[in-house]
Write a structure and sequence with these properties.
The protein is an alpha+beta fold and 374 residues long. Helices cover 27% and strands 26% of the residues. It is globular, with a radius of gyration of 20 Å. Bound molecules: adenosine-5'-diphosphate and magnesium ion. The site of magnesium ion has 2 residues, from loops. Homodimer. Pathway: Purine metabolism; IMP biosynthesis via de novo pathway; 5-amino-1-(5-phospho-D-ribosyl)imidazole-4-carboxylate from 5-amino-1-(5-phospho-D-ribosyl)imidazole (N5-CAIR route): step 1/2.
């Protein structure tokens, strides 16, 4: 049965980055208190939390301390020690469960589950060594992408192989354990769907976003995605099918490729709010963070409806100063900065959201602002 968590009670968040911060901001509006576990003092979420526990994510006594002060626990990233999370679930209320983390923190189990849900993924094989990779690479062919099963993000932990001659480029990846090799998908667009579900099975997807990457890091999300109605329907149905299969509680971000023939292939999953859903704070009748809080607190969910076409642009370290200098010129831009101290190059520092009735003009305005030019 779904348990209801009420205003005044405390939500514990494992991880104090920007996703935790935006979850916390949404929760605080409704009067929840926030406890956060993060190794850094004054993390983006720590700065606004009621209680900060400063310790490594997998520190068992710190997790117990978090459980002691929290009425419900959630997390903002999937690379948590699964065994530790499973133990936590025995003495704390973790409505999302530990299974979702086990499945999505490993590309091998993740892809297998997506297939079991009846949704397509790129043809792939699993290899535990470069010798094994050589032996079975013919099953996927070239070009292909080899990815570490664990721990990759923003294009890290993966290499593209054009031919047999490139095989040794993948050798270093096996230092991090097993890998998957998947067929290169000649996509025309990348899109993502954020699907959210509560313990009663109530399920909603956010409007589909179109994602534009630069150097493997998300640069822009454009909503609605500029794809056919048929793709929008397929994408939403696929996300719901995966969510049902996993008996999701909380949030699942589903990254997809759109092919020339108007079909989709699932790329990867994230069991948490996602960068491509940040637009929903201003763009939708409910944001991914508010909906996440509702889902884990056993509240009814709201149907997300897009107010207007919306663009979200990421602000990396090198964009912070030019953005700050330009604020006076762009009253329609919603500025989000995550409170990170050091604006390192390529580090995600914030984002900008723009609602528009003229998408092309807004995309040009972003480009011409000079903030995101190389
Ligand atoms: P990450 O965890 O780094 O986001 P992804 O699996 O999403 O890893 O890969 C990062 C990016 O690399 C994708 O957004 C896509 O642009 C490209 N990519 C990944 N897998 C494939 C593939 N099979 N075919 C074509 N491009 C891919
Ligand atoms: Mg990705």
């Amino acid at each position: 049965m779904m348990k209801t968590i009420s205003p005044g009670q405390t939500i514990g968040i494992i991880g104090g980055g920007q996703l935790g911060r935006m979850m916390a901001l949404a929760a605080k509006e409704a009067g929840f208190k926030i406890a956060v576990l993060d190794p850094a003092m004054e993390s983006p979420c720590g700065q606004i939390a009621d209680i900060q526990i400063v310790a490594p994510y997998n520190d068992q006594s710190a997790l117990e301390e978090l459980a002691d002060v929290s009425d419900v626990i959630t997390y903002e990233f999937e690379n948590i020690d699964y065994e530790g999370l499973k133990r936590l679930a025995e003495y704390a209320y973790l409505p999302q469960g530990a299974e979702l983390v086990r499945i999505t923190q490993n590309r091998i189990t993740e892809k297998a589950e997506i297939r079991q849900a009846g949704v397509p993924v790129a043809n792939y094989i699993v290899a535990t060594s470069i010798v094994e990779l050589k032996a079975c690479i013919a099953e996927v062919g070239f070009p292909c992408i080899v990815k570490t099963a664990y721990g990759g993000y923003d294009g890290k932990g993966q290499v593209k192989l054009e031919s047999h001659a490139d095989l040794m480029l993948a050798a270093p990846l096996f230092d991090y354990g097993a890998c998957v090799a998947e067929a290169y998908v000649p996509f025309v667009k990348e899109i993502s769907v954020i699907v959210q579900r509560n313990g009663n099975g109530e399920t909603y997807c956010l409007p589909v976003g179109e994602n534009i990457h630069k150097d493997h890091i998300l640069h822009e999300t454009i909503v609605p995605a500029r794809v056919s109605e048929a793709i929008l329907t397929q994408a939403t149905e696929a996300a719901e099918q995966i969510a049902d299969h996993l008996q999701l509680i909380g949030t699942l971000a589903v990254e997809m490729f759109v092919l020339k023939d108007d079909s989709i292939v699932i790329n990867e999953l994230a069991p948490r709010p996602h960068n491509s859903g940040h637009y929903s704070i201003e763009g939708s009748t409910i944001s991914q963070f508010h909906q996440h809080v509702r889902a884990i607190c056993g509240w009814p969910l709201r149907k997300p409806v897009l107010h207007q076409p919306t663009v979200m642009v990421n602000v990396l370290g090198e964009h912070v100063v030019p953005l700050s200098n330009a604020i006076s010129k762009y009253p329609d831009w919603s500025i989000h900065l995550y409170g990170k101290e050091e604006a390192k190059t390529k580090r995600k520092m914030g984002h900008v959201t723009i609602l528009t009735n003229d998408l092309n003009q807004t995309l040009q305005e972003i480009e011409h602002s000079g903030i995101w030019s190389e």
